[in-house]
Amino acid sequence: MSSSIDPRATRSRDAILAAARSLLLDEGPAALTHQRVAQQAGVGRATVYRHWPRPEQLLLDLMTDVDMPYFQEPEAPVRSWLHSQLRELADAMAVPHIAAVTLTLMQGALWDPQVATQRDACLEILNERLEVALALAAANREIDISADPIDFSAILVGPIIYRVAIQAGSVSPHFIDHLIDGLGRWDVDSIRRADQNGQPA
Amino acid sequence: MSSSIDPRATRSRDAILAAARSLLLDEGPAALTHQRVAQQAGVGRATVYRHWPRPEQLLLDLMTDVDMPYFQEPEAPVRSWLHSQLRELADAMAVPHIAAVTLTLMQGALWDPQVATQRDACLEILNERLEVALALAAANREIDISADPIDFSAILVGPIIYRVAIQAGSVSPHFIDHLIDGLGRWDVDSIRRADQNGQPA
User: Fold this and answer.
1) Looking at chain A, which residue has its C-alpha nearest residue B146?
2) Nearest residue in chain A measured CA to CA from B107
């Protein structure tokens, strides 16, 4: 963080993002006008304009907070690490404002090329992380992979988005296990060995 | 169709729905105002108001066209029938206005209880149909099911929505087969027998 940033500007930026998040949650993306956001944040409209000339950019910045923390730095046994990551993702998706931002990102990408670019960047990071994790699992002989790497996220994340954001249902450990099983044939003995040894080289 | 319906009213209703569909596709749900829809359809605003007092209702009627034709009347072998149904669903989701309506339905349901009710009705029909189809497959000994019936649609449809509407990617036959494999253990011999015999009782 650069020391040249005005702390007052940071405070108003944070207040505006919090206001936008709360409006999005309560009323949907149509409420994200400069006027409503400024009013809710208790700042002038000009301040909102200065940071985000177009309301869509505000939505993009809300989204940046949401998509990134999952599937980083895999650990052996990968199977249980994957389970805990999918649990965190499912719990996050169950938070209304995260579901709202996620579905708004998906929907907005259909019409707004800038949103589509942001969406594609998120998806690519997700794919890369899952490929790294499953490569580790394969190297550890935890799994004999049968799914195509390009399908990992559709197989794991697609059903969780469907269950949480579309069916408004909850994600059981059994459901997560079933999705993980869909990647290939897991070897119980190798998973147990990885668990005892910690993460192998 | 009742003969008491004024054919002129039907024509203007169809024109309004077509206009709304085209606006949704080109500009997103924010464009579905009474004024824009009336202009695009070449009818008076009052006509749009009369049929759809709130723009959300127009969106709901667009959605009614979209979700229903899949997974009806399963045939043995269920596996190949399921494959062809998922192919049709994937091809439909790849049509921009159907993807748009689907994501708008999902997103709108977060804020609008009426949209949520419509969404839930669609999801319930989908679940029921898949349960019927998989019950037939199990009765034919095509499959030893390992997934919970409540998860059928999340396992089959979730990844397809993810692939088509979120990743903007295409659905290969291999991808569909992989999803179908996720329901349980399929028996190749029983599938072949069902194929030779037509649909058993």
Assistant:
1) A178
2) A103
Asked whether the beta carbons of residue B155 and residue A167 sit closer than 8 angstroms, the reply is no
Q: Which residues pair with B186 in a beta bridge?
A: B143
Residue A149 sits in the same domain as residue A50: no
Among chain A residues, the shortest Cα distance to B104 is held by A107
pLDDT (tens digit, 9 = 90+) per residue, B44-88? 999 998 888 877 778 778 776 555 678 989 999 999 999 999 999
Helix/strand/coil for A185: strand
Residues of chain A found within 8 Å of residue B175, distances taken between Cβ atoms: 148, 151, 154
User: For position A87, which CATH number holds?
Assistant: 1.10.357.10
> What residues contact residue B9 under an 8 Å CB cut-off, 6+ apart?
none
A179 domain residue, yes or no: yes
Contact A161 B159 (CB under 8 A): no
Strand (E) or helix (H) holding A143: strand A143-145
What the block records as the tokens of A96 is 């209304």
ipTM of this model?
0.79
CB contact under 8 A, A119 and B147: no
Is A155 a domain residue?
yes
| B46 located within any domain | yes
Is B183's Cβ below 8 Å from some Cβ in A?
Answer: no
Kindly report, residue by residue over B96-146, the tens digit of the pLDDT: 777 887 887 788 788 778 888 888 888 898 999 999 999 999 999 999 999
Beta strands A143-145; B184-186: pairing state: unpaired
